[in-house]
Amino acid sequence: MTDRYAQAVNSGFTKTLAKKLGLPRPAILRRHRAGDPLTVGPVLVLADAASKGDADTLAQTLLGWDLDVRRDPHDDLRWGAVVLVLTEAAEPTAVTEPVLATGSVLRALAGNGRVVTISRAPADDDTPALAATRQGVDALVRSLGKELRGGSTSNGVVLTDDVEVAHPSVVAALRFFLSAKSAYVDGQLLRVGPADAAVVDGTGWQRPLEGQVAVVTGAARGIGASIARTLARDGATVVCVDVPAAGESLATTANAVGGTALQLDVTAPDAGQRILDHARERHGRLDVVVHNAGITRDKLLANMKPAQWESVVAVNLAAQLRINEVLLAAGIDGLRIVSLASTSGIAGNKGQTNYGFSKAGVIGHTRATARLLAATGGTANAVAPGFIETEMTARIPFATREVARRIPSLAQGGQPVDVAEAIAFLASPVAAGVNGQVLRVCGQHLVGQ
Ligand code: NAD
């Protein structure tokens, strides 16, 4: 599950050779470590004329995080990040100056740098010029993601009209995108709506899930085990769920995170009730459910056996629907559900009609469930990983695997922790304004972007 090519072109003699031959050199991505600075250098905050007030507000927030915040692109610095505030830009020409100012500092952007836009979502009553400006930001962010080098990324926070820039979920999304926790998230825009969210400050950012109980399915290995570790790091007590056959590794994960193990096939008819009972009886509450358990049974549809279709849909989709019914009926205040989708559920993938159907289905039910949970202050979101280095992807034939790794803008596969960090963000109470969204963790995979 290691990317030997990326290792070779970044170390020793093979690094020099790769440079000489002009081979692509995927950057070593900076990942979160406790105590490390939030960004790799000073943060430049830019805005169009009408958005200066919002930019001032956000600059104050960044200063509160002890960042070196600047407002002048002419400062001769190695920048850690650019925050481009376009919330009040009302016509396309309004963005010209701050966008070109962003361009003027890109050569001085440090490796693993960040560009984050803050803009507004198009609304039904927008004038054509306003709608054009707001929509324009979408492919500005995605195009820039394809241009940046050295592990730098471009992402955007998109506010609905009824949300102020100081909303805790806007601030939390900005912090996530600036941080090393979003190492493998690139070219993505995350929408924030008006739901109430508690303000986080100071040490609150270190353990946003303190006192909360989270269930993670498929936690014995791979992405699920990493989610369990990350949620525990953030303060949650974690219930680790997996099939009895994976009991030994399940116990290892549960012990490592100081949580409990629940041996359970998520397709069992009573799975939802057993999850709810276990969480309440052992830990007194349930706040977060991460639907991570998933399988692949790849076949061209012409050769697909009924069991191959049925098992994938049963584990990846039907189980989530059935468990969610029980959770919704329990009327838990502020419940957060995060489901694993996939870029295959967005763009489709040869040999994966079953898997693609199931993962697109996850996106569909997430949006519908989000509306149902909003009434009780809860959220449902999905994370769509691209190519992540796990046992699941280690089974892909070598040549296909190598192509899949190099296609994303970041030219490498992601690590399970990259998916886990995105899930931990969406599972945190401060992300309450993010509801019904699909966040891709795919290094800006070319397909479906
Ligand atoms: P994995 O195969 O390494 O781990 C999946 C875990 O789910 C295993 O521990 C397995 O025992 C468990 N599981 C399977 N069926 C179950 C059931 N019926 N009940 C309970 N547990 C069950 O997979 P992974 O790569 O870690 O993937 C985790 C999730 O991420 C899956 O939903 C997968 O579809 C999704 N995903 C992975 C990638 C990737 O590149 N690895 C990409 C996109 C999406």
Spell out the key features of this protein.
single chain, 449 residues, alpha/beta, Rossmann fold, 2 domains, seven-stranded parallel sheet, six-stranded parallel sheet, 15 helices, 13 strands, globular, binds nicotinamide-adenine-dinucleotide, NAD(P)-bd_dom_sf, KR_dom, 3-oxoacyl-[acyl-carrier protein] reductase
The biggest sheet amounts to: 7 strands, parallel
Order of helices and strands: HHEHEEHEHEHEEHEHEHEHEHHEHHHE
How many domains, in number, for the residues?
2
Spans with pLDDT under 50 lasting ≥5 residues?
Answer: none
> How are strands sequenced across the largest beta sheet?
9-8-7-10-11-12-13
Mind telling me the CATH superfamily name of the largest domain? Answer: NAD(P)-binding Rossmann-like Domain
CATH topology of the largest domain: Rossmann fold
User: What is the terminal-to-terminal distance?
Assistant: 25 Å
- Please write the CATH class name of the largest domain: Alpha Beta
Question: Per DSSP, what share of the residues sits in E-state strands of 2 or more residues?
Answer: 15-25%
Structural class: alpha/beta
Q: How does the overall form come out from the CA principal axes?
A: globular
Number of helices: 15
Proportion in helices: 25-40%
CATH architecture of the largest domain: 3-Layer(aba) Sandwich
Q: What value does the average pLDDT take?
A: 95
Subunit arrangement of the protein: single chain
Taking Cα atoms only, what radius of gyration do you get, to the nearest Å?
A: 22 Å
Per DSSP E runs of 2 or more residues, the count of β-strands stands at: 13
Q: Hetero groups bound?
A: nicotinamide-adenine-dinucleotide
GO molecular function: oxidoreductase activity, acting on the CH-OH group of donors, NAD or NADP as acceptor
Pfam family, one: adh_short_C2
Family: Belongs to the short-chain dehydrogenases/reductases (SDR) family.
Protein name: 3-oxoacyl-[acyl-carrier protein] reductase
